[in-house]
Write a structure and sequence with these properties.
The chain has ten helices and 20 strands. With about 300 residues, it is an alpha/beta fold. The protein has two domains: about 1-155 and about 200-310, Metallo-beta-lactamase, Chain A, CATH 3.60.15; about 155-195, no CATH class. Strands 6-5-4-3-2-1-19 form a seven-stranded mixed sheet. A seven-stranded mixed sheet has the order 7-8-9-15-16-17-18, with helices on one face. Strands 10-13 form a two-stranded antiparallel sheet. About 40% of the residues are buried. Pfam families: Anti-Pycsar_Apyc1. GO terms for molecular function: 3'-tRNA processing endoribonuclease activity; zinc ion binding. Its EC number is 3.1.26.11.
Length: about 300
């Protein structure tokens, strides 16, 4: 499982950073997931290891333009690339309305079904072949959300000792069980979950939209491998600019991650005031003062690999 950061700027792009977009890739699958799609994201995808053809899930955190203006053009390009499989869009209702209106007004007919899941109407997590998605309500000037992604499609291993103890000899049914399929053997139903286990513990990441209250993540943070959160300003600069922005600062996010022992914290969505040689060091110094785990402040196209937790 890996994360590639396609846009790490807040509000507007600069020469070194584009606006928000984050790609998530999964084990042994060409299909991938995108969180947010600011203007120009499709150009960033062209420079990444991903293709628009294989994009299957898109999650939009909120309706501000630096998080969704690139989506109509991306969907049009996906259609022109020959995509015919269903694409799932998980987004606030107003973003869904924006997309549909833009496609109609620009006379774009998609070659694939765009299955829309409006976050306000969800009462449970979403399960897709790639991952489970829990939607987290955040605090911003407009309704904003985070997404907790739990890896799925993990290869199964057989509990050989248990199979032997039940007198179940090797055969084609072993292959079926390993694929997660229940199978009949000598007149008995063998339930795959009873005789297999996942090769590794599911990897879990949280990727947040704009959020001024990191503590809202508390009910979701246990077991998370990586927290990706905005740090638009330093603590001092945020108070100078004003709390009305609805953003977080590096200090508050770092304090939250330290309190909850998050093993890896990734900060992004930086104000343009920190773009340029050496300027990000202010945010790094502030976060490092309050968090002693694995900390990264990412640039556009940085790649983060999330290790497997192998079960033996």
């Amino acid at each position: 499982m890996k994360i590639q950061f396609l846009g790490t700027s807040s509000g507007s792009p600069s020469l070194s950073r584009n606006v928000s977009a984050t790609a998530i890739g999964f084990e042994k699958s060409k299909e991938w997931l995108l969180v947010d799609c600011g203007e120009g994201t499709q150009h960033q995808v062209l420079r990444s290891e991903y293709t628009v053809y294989h994009l299957s899930i898109i999650c939009i955190t909120h309706l501000h333009g630096d998080h969704c203006y690139g989506l109509p053009e991306l969907l049009a390009s996906m259609s022109m690339s020959g995509r015919t499989k269903t694409v799932n869009l998980v987004a606030p209702k107003k973003v869904v309305e924006f997309i549909h209106s833009t496609l109609v007004l620009t006379d774009v007919a998609l070659n694939f079904e765009l299955h829309c899941h409006m976050v306000e109407e969800l009462d449970a997590a979403l399960d897709f072949p790639l991952c489970r998605i829990d939607v987290i309500k955040l605090q911003h000037r407009v309704p904003s959300y985070g997404f907790k992604l739990t890896e799925k499609s993990i290869p199964k291993k057989l509990l050989i000792d248990k199979l032997t103890a039940h007198g179940i000899e090797p055969g084609p049914h072993f292959n079926a069980l390993q694929k997660g399929l229940d199978v009949s053997f000598n007149g008995k139903l063998l339930v795959a979950d009873n005789f297999t286990y996942n090769s590794w513990r599911a990897r879990v990441v949280i990727i947040c939209g704009d959020n001024e209250k990191p503590n809202l993540l508390k009910p979701y943070i246990d077991g998370v491998d990586v927290l990706v959160h905005e740090a638009t300003f330093t603590h001092r600069d945020l108070h100078k600019v004003g709390m009305h922005t609805g953003h977080s600062d590096a200090k508050r996010v770092a304090q939250f991650a330290q309190e909850h022992q998050v093993p890896q914290l990734v900060l992004f969505h930086f104000s343009v005031r920190y773009h340029g040689s050496g300027l990000l060091s202010q945010l790094l110094a502030e976060a490092s003062a309050y968090y002693d785990g694995h900390l990264r402040l990412v640039e556009d196209f940085d790649l983060l690999l999330i290790d497997k937790h192998i079960r033996k």
